[in-house]
Amino acid sequence: MEEQINNTETTPTKIQDKNKLGLIPDGWTTPIISEVFQFINTTSFSRNQLNYDADTDLYYIHYGDIHSTYKKPLLDFEIETNVPKLNSDVVLPNSVQYLKDGDVIIADASEDYEGVGEAIEIKNLNDKVAISGLHTFALRDLNSKTVAGFRTYIFKNLNVKKALKTIATGSKVYGISKGNIQKFKIVLPTLLEQQKIANILSTWDKAISAQEKLIIEKQELKQELMRQLLNGKKRFPGYTKDWGIVPLNQITWFQEGPGLRKWQFTTEGIKVINITNLKHSGNLNLSLTNRHISLEEFNNKYQHFECDAEDIVMASSGNSYCKVSIVKQKDLPLIMNTSVIRFKPLKNCDYNFLLNLLKSEKFKREIDRMITGGAQPNFGPYHLNRIKVKIPCIEEQAIISSVLKSSDDDISKSITKLESLKSQKQGLMQQLLTGEKRVKI
After folding, report:
1. 136 contacts 108 by C-beta, under 8 angstroms
2. Integer-rounded Cα radius of gyration of the chain
3. Would you give per-residue pLDDT tens digits along the chain (441 residues)?
4. pTM of the model
5. Are 252 and 345 in contact (CB under 8 A)?
6. Helices marked H in 48-126 — which ranges?
């Protein structure tokens, strides 16, 4: 990567007159999209007409997946495993057009401005067959004015993204019309620069993918380590005493949220934690929450539901049930809402041992055993009071906690490195796409 980064110019570039796409470097052009791409036909099948089974062969690009599933600029069919397929009973229209490598798919609708014009580029279809679907535009290079691997980045340029928002219309859902986007101006470097920019950004993507793979491997090793240590299959020298089997409520105190209603929420006061605030990282994401209860209502009714720093909080319903996070000092003051349960270890239980126990597959299986048959996962103190756990003495718990914490710390360092790579790529990408930094030709 260093060699690729050093292969760029940092000196100021000649620029044309400023317009809504920023300062355009000398030699670059600003054509409208219809001069560069042809629009190929898309289809409009819904989610209930899709599946992830292997008995059909037609892949389908849904706009929702562009927003939430495909995290990389290029949709590589040799890597991505979450592309749905059309059900076998779906009848295709005669006008259907199949995708090719290098085609760009743009989401024409979004629930927020940030997602307006989000785009991916198709790569490595090989013998696979795919079509573009609901709320998408499918673009194909018209006159070889763009190079493969660069096309998606046309729509990652922050100036282009900002300009795209100006042609989006709507209130709850923002949309772009075909007529507007056909006339929309984009920024195009020379073909040689496009290729070099694509090569540089591809190098960063490979480094990011390698780091993501490393994290997954470390997380899998941690899960195996948890299975061995929390089940007593792996013991430490000097510890041979049989583990005891005790009710969960004898090693931890827990409390369910009070079940606040929408009409009780205010825009200021004490923040309310919901299951959507719990993240896989183990931290809480409260940055976008607008749910509070007034200080007066908190003091009158809900003080005993106030969270403390280091409380372990768990989602108890919905698709995220059993997801665990930790309350930090910076999150306070904070209270729970319904479907959130907080835990504190008792004196006979090590904090980190409890944390890993609650995050373990074995604990989730125990919950699943009790709630089988419901319309959706949902559990509470009644179920927790019936759970029994296998537990060693407090000293062995501490050793197990130390080993697992070391594994967590190692994973955290790898995640920090991944975020750094993504941030570095994002900064370099904008410099290259706007011409602030020019590649050497």
Report:
1. yes
2. 26
3. 655 555 665 554 555 545 678 889 999 999 999 999 999 999 999 888 999 876 778 999 999 899 889 989 999 999 998 899 999 889 999 999 999 999 999 998 887 777 788 999 999 999 999 999 989 999 999 999 999 999 999 999 999 988 888 888 877 778 888 999 999 999 999 999 999 999 999 999 999 999 999 999 999 999 999 999 999 999 999 999 999 999 999 999 999 999 888 888 888 899 999 988 888 778 888 876 778 999 999 999 999 999 999 999 999 998 889 999 999 999 999 999 989 999 999 999 999 999 999 999 999 999 998 886 566 788 999 999 999 999 999 999 999 999 999 999 999 999 999 999 999 999 999 999 999 999 988
4. 0.82
5. yes
6. 63-68
The DSSP bridge pattern shows strands 85-86 and 50-51 to be antiparallel
User: How do 129-132 and 8-9 pair as beta strands?
Assistant: unpaired
Select 244-391's CATH number: 3.40.50.150, 3.40.50.1220, 3.40.50.2300, 3.90.220.20: 3.90.220.20
Q: Which alpha helices (H) appear in 272-336, and where do they start and end?
A: 295-297
State how beta strands 312-315 and 324-326 pair: antiparallel
- Would you say domain 29-188 falls under CATH 3.90.220.20? yes
Q: Which amino acid is at 199?
A: N
